[in-house]
Design brief:
Helix content: 25-40%
Distance between the termini: 51 Å
Largest sheet: 9 strands, antiparallel
Number of strands: 9
Number of helices: 11
Shape: globular
Strand content: 15-25%
Radius of gyration: 20 Å
Order of helices and strands: HEEHEEHHHHEEEHHEEHHH
């Protein structure tokens, strides 16, 4: 029997009457952190409040595949063709510094060019770009902007907690579960805390050997989905630097990425997992991994990275000036759920302030060549 895919309707998302109030608290804290990071962050620049450390800006090309089943050939994936792209690899931490201090949470942000249709960003609807901001885990540790109010504060202050050793770690864990004492015991954030523990145990891996998910659910035209980038098997098999030890040096992720791309091209499969059961594949609970046995991920496009040199400091500078947001998409691919909805204005305000403090123009490029110059 063929799978019955859940049809998108607005009522699959929960309404939160206090959403705007909690969102403003997160925005205020984000802007404060970014302003303070110029002096406190160790780089002399304003940092992102998440994914502060980038590992490289990479040129790519996305091929949208032909002959897809109708349920998958939705939105931008309905039209086969190729699009130039830029990819930013990063660490998930809000802090900069040695890789060993930052953990193994990493991200892949993708910007595709020449994409038709207006975006969902009111201040830049006609950029012709389409973004993803994905993480190397199929779940996330925060479901609502209300909880993000205390979870964000914990992560921004994590170095102070963990510098105290085991007592500090216990305080961090207690404050996480109890919402820093704001939650009733019946409402303690156990699911989110257990998701955090699971993600914190993700082993360090070559950035090219990780899969990267959309964190939460998104529209996929008429349906509901999660999107992941996963290593194309033959490309992954060719990777030489397979073991990453963050304790082995100040920088470990970037040198491995840089060396691999200098030696050989690479590819990721872009895959869509359609929702078949809102109970077992929820939109509003990002701590739940969607079971592949209910709906396997299907490849809809291929992201190809040619051989290239990303070694120069100018690569990092160009990377830092770019903006990526899961809301720079068309309506057919809108992020879904409370925490995904919060990312829209938090990302925009964060980007505006960071570019202002760093005296960088905040304009969307029209091509990869505009940023990196023509391929050599």
């Amino acid at each position: 029997m063929a799978a019955q895919f859940v049809r998108y309707t607005p009522d699959i998302e929960d309404d939160d009457p206090d959403f705007d109030k909690h969102l403003q608290t997160v925005i205020d804290r984000t802007e404060s952190y970014i302003a303070e990071s110029v002096a406190a962050g160790g780089t002399g620049q304003a940092l992102r409040d998440a994914h502060a450390k980038g590992y490289g800006l990479v040129r790519g090309e996305v091929e949208i595949l032909d002959g897809l089943p109708a349920e998958y050939a939705q939105g931008v994936y309905a039209t086969p063709g190729t699009h130039d792209a830029l990819i930013r690899f990063s660490n998930g931490s809000p802090h900069a510094g040695a890789d060993a201090r930052l953990g193994a949470a990493t991200g892949l942000a993708l910007k595709m060019f020449g994409m038709p249709g207006p975006t969902l960003l009111d201040d830049e609807p006609d950029t012709g770009t389409f973004d993803y901001a994905n993480i190397n885990g199929p779940i996330f540790f925060c479901n609502t902007v209300e909880h993000y109010v205390f979870i964000q504060e914990l992560f921004l202050n994590a170095p102070a907690y963990f510098s105290r050793g085991r007592p500090g770690a216990r305080s961090f864990f207690t404050d996480f579960v109890t919402g820093k004492g704001t939650l009733d015991q019946d409402d303690w954030a156990w699911d989110e805390f257990l998701a955090f523990l699971r993600l914190s145990k993700t082993p360090a891996a070559n950035l090219l050997l990780s899969s990267y998910w959309t964190m939460g659910a998104v529209r996929h035209g008429d349906h509901v989905a999660k999107v992941r980038f996963t290593p194309e098997p033959s490309a992954a098999a060719a990777v030489v630097r397979r073991h990453i030890d963050p304790a082995s040096g100040e920088e470990v992720f970037r040198p491995a990425l840089q060396a691999e791309l200098q030696e050989r091209p690479y590819a990721f499969d872009i895959q869509v997992q359609l929702c078949t059961d809102l109970e077992r594949m929820p939109v509003e609970d990002t701590t739940v991994e969607w079971p592949e046995q209910l709906s396997p991920s299907v490849t809809v496009a291929r992201l190809r990275l040619p051989r290239q040199d990303i070694s120069g400091p100018e690569n990092l500078a160009k990377m830092d000036s770019l903006s990526f947001t899961p809301w720079r998409v068309t309506a057919e691919h809108a992020p879904l759920g409370n925490i995904m909805r919060a990312r829209k204005e938090v990302y925009r305000r964060s980007s505006v302030q960071r570019h202002k403090l760093n005296r960088q123009p905040r304009t969307e490029p029209r091509s990869a060549d505009e940023v990196l110059g023509p391929p050599r």
